[in-house]
Automatic annotation (TrEMBL):
Gene: gcvT
Organism: Tersicoccus phoenicis
GO cellular component: cytosol; glycine cleavage complex
Documented EC number(s): 2.1.2.10
Reaction(s) the record says it catalyses: N(6)-[(R)-S(8)-aminomethyldihydrolipoyl]-L-lysyl-[protein] + (6S)-5,6,7,8-tetrahydrofolate = N(6)-[(R)-dihydrolipoyl]-L-lysyl-[protein] + (6R)-5,10-methylene-5,6,7,8-tetrahydrofolate + NH4(+)
Domain (Aminomethyltransferase C-terminal) ranges: 300-376
Protein name, per record: Aminomethyltransferase
Lineage of the organism: Bacteria, Bacillati, Actinomycetota, Actinomycetes, Micrococcales
GO biological process terms, semicolon-separated: glycine decarboxylation via glycine cleavage system
């Protein structure tokens, strides 16, 4: 299905999700499957076998031209011109004051060709900001192909076997050899696909970018290939609990215009030393780093392990000796670990692992402990 109103959008797989009995939720203006049955079963399938996700609400922006890398260096905080062809890099697009506009992944598909993948709710904003920042970079072309592109993900320990089953035999070894944060062009279920090996679940996984009209056929082929490997369709509820266990930030929760990369623990993404020249937000980010922002002052993002049974939720106050010292950004019970987990911004003086804090759970203080992120790390 296609967009029917200015506020409600549907992916090319919407009818399939409806036939599978999915419960839907609005996400960034898109009607997306929240779950198909049990979100707990979907979560556990990804940890033990494999899950199939529709991520077609994400954005895709092509950046091409002889100065494409130079342009992205100026527009984003990372050194994107240094990405090797066939590789990818996690980055941020920031405002002049250093606030985070979005976090995104950038793929280098050819010497003069990149693909920028922003979050669903920010796709139009990122496209507009990149267009503004293109001034002065003659020969650089931006093309927002989000509306024409579908994105299907296979995540879990059996993901590789499933993806190999839908590509020609002569490409199966290339799938196996594909490294983390890399991408190649393959044929999957008979259609051309950009295959990437990244993920947002803490497990091995692949993302397949393709034209909308080919998405239903590929989804069906992957489901068929995955039957013997325990693959099931998964919705956004499982995606959220999986990414939380993996300590991965979500824009709108852990990341926002009001937070700097340093406070969010993403200072390593900002190329203050490794790239020459100016980029948007550089002066503010340099000043924040020099001031110790997120390390010696203000608040910093931490992981919290629940010492009781009750889970913290977004926006719940974090307390120390009865006084508020922070706020939960994401929190819920961990299906894999068996105890509540959360991420929160708290005062820097209270961010050392082992620090005991409380969360105000609707009037009752529940004990938590600061721990290193991620909460869960898969066995290699």
């Amino acid at each position: 299905m296609t967009e029917t109103t200015t506020t409600q959008r549907f992916t090319a797989l919407y009818d399939i999700h409806a036939e599978l009995g999915a419960s839907f939720t609005d996400f960034g203006g898109w009607q997306m499957p929240l779950k198909y049955g049990s979100e707990l079963a979907e979560h556990r399938a990804v940890r033990a076998a494999a899950g199939l996700f529709d991520l077609s609400h994400m954005g895709e922006i092509e950046v091409t031209g002889p100065r494409a890398g130079e342009f992205l260096d100026a527009a984003l905080v990372g050194r994107l011109s240094a990405i090797a062809v066939g590789k990818a890099k996690y980055s941020l697009i920031c405002a002049q004051d250093g606030g985070i506009i979005d976090d995104l992944i950038v793929y280098r598909l050819a010497e003069e060709e990149y693909l920028v993948v922003p979050n669903a709710g920010n796709a139009a904003t990122v496209a507009a900001v990149l267009e503004e920042r293109r001034a002065g970079f003659d020969g650089v072309t931006l093309r927002d192909v989000s509306a024409q592109t579908s994105l299907i993900a296979v995540q879990g320990p059996n993901a590789e076997e499933i993806v190999r089953a839908v590509v020609p035999s002569e490409q199966a070894e290339a799938v196996r050899a594909l490294k983390y944060y890399a991408g190649i062009r393959v044929t999957a279920a008979g259609v051309p696909v950009l295959l990437a090996r990244t993920g947002y679940t803490g497990e091995d996984g692949f993302e397949l970018f393709l034209a909308n009209d080919a998405a239903p056929g590929l989804w069906t082929a992957l489901r068929t290939a995955g039957e013997q490997h325990g693959l099931i369709p998964c919705g956004l509820a499982a995606r959220d609990s999986l990414r939380l266990e993996a300590g991965m930030p979500l824009y709108g929760n852990e990341l926002s215009r009001d937070r700097s990369p340093f406070a969010a623990g993403l200072g390593g993404v900002v190329a203050l030393k490794s790239k020459e020249g100016d980029f948007v937000g550089r002066a503010a980010l340099q000043a924040g780093k020099d001031a110790g922002e997120g390390s010696t002052s203000g608040q910093r993002l931490v992981g919290l392990k629940g010492l009781g049974r009750r889970a913290a939720r977004s926006h719940y106050p974090v307390l120390h000796d009865g006084a508020q010292v922070g706020e939960i950004t994401s929190g819920q019970p961990s299906p894999t670990l068996g105890y509540p987990v959360a991420m929160a911004y708290v005062d820097v003086a209270l961010t050392a692992p082992g620090t005991r804090l409380d969360v105000d759970l609707r009037g009752k203080a529940e004990p938590f402990e600061v721990v290193e992120l991620p909460f869960y790390r898969r066995e290699q």
